[in-house]
Amino acid sequence: MMRSLIRRAWTASCLLALILAAPASAETLARYGAGWLESVDGYLVLHLKGTHREMGLQHGKLLADHIRENMNYLLEVKGNQSLAKIGPLEMKPRDMLPGIVKLQEEHIPPKYWDEMEGLAEGADLPLKDIQAANFIPELFHCSGFALMNSATADGTLYHGRVLDYGVDLKLQDHAVLIVAEPEGGIPFVNVTYAGFIGSVTGMNANHVSIGEMGGGGLGHWNGVPMAFLVRDVLETADDLAEAIGVFRDRPRSCEYYFVVADGKTNTAAGLEACWDRFGIVEPNTAHPRLPTPVEDAVLLSAGDRYSELVRRVQATHGKFTAESAIHLMDRPVAMKSNLHNVLFEPKSTRFWVANADSQGRPAAEQKYHAFQLTALLARQPGQ
User: Fold this and answer.
1) Pairwise CA distance, residues 227 & 167, whole Å
2) Which DSSP string do the residues of 150-169 spell out, in sequence order?
3) Which domains does the chain carry?
């Protein structure tokens, strides 16, 4: 009897692993060099591998149509519209981005310039347009949380990331998961959009996940662009301490906040990483802007959304599973401008992602797609 129960349990776990590793609906769409593009359950997944220039070239070749359409809308249609203000100064991308690029040029590792050059060549677009678009995140200034140990049903660490901006920019029409294997770096997944090499949401194969939240500080651009700092965490950080070091030890721009989680140690932290200050918010710790600490939780948001996030976590503390943790990102914690939501389970590298729809309806109200980074990395074209 016991052997039968063990055999059935083992069979069930193997079946679950097979389901995660081999999605029911997957189609290889194109290949270029070591890179390839597939559709998994209707979600574009771009596999990149090699040097940074090679990965940029693969990206440009395999997503050329999406990249051109995305760049055209961002830089031509929206390029002369005000996206933000510094006092009376209107922030128009076409006016501001070249200056931001020039100011931050010295702070950016050469490998990312190489990748943008490859991307421009692959997509057959002017390099200056690719560079300008990749600095757009510097013009924008969401919610995030990590739950672990006593906060969840079995101690599993869950990291949630709510991205609240840009549904009117139509980025969701070009949503893609980039599964990258950079030469000399850590493999990672970047939840992003066609034509962007930086990251605001991702997880690496060493079980480190990260999500960004914008603040103020517009105009303070003399540092490494936020999206390139996040990308560097994904490529280089083996644990939470190394991820923190990327932000602490390099010149920063504007005002940003991050939740970083480490599935190997079941730990997480919130980071305040501004141009002129740096701070760490650990679990169970209050902050002037986060006055209600919750045991074994890191909760970052603002105003009524923060209060609602705290209320939800307190109400289900100790019982959270992946399914209930996803619902922490429901409206109104997510705003009407909710572009994407992601829940990471860093230990297993599983994650669930939803994007706003083409009409701009919030990601929180759309379908969540389930993936596992280790399974994506093991896939081959034609599977």
Assistant:
1) 18
2) GGBSSS--EEEEEEES-GGG
3) 142-170+217-225+238-369 (3.60.60.10)
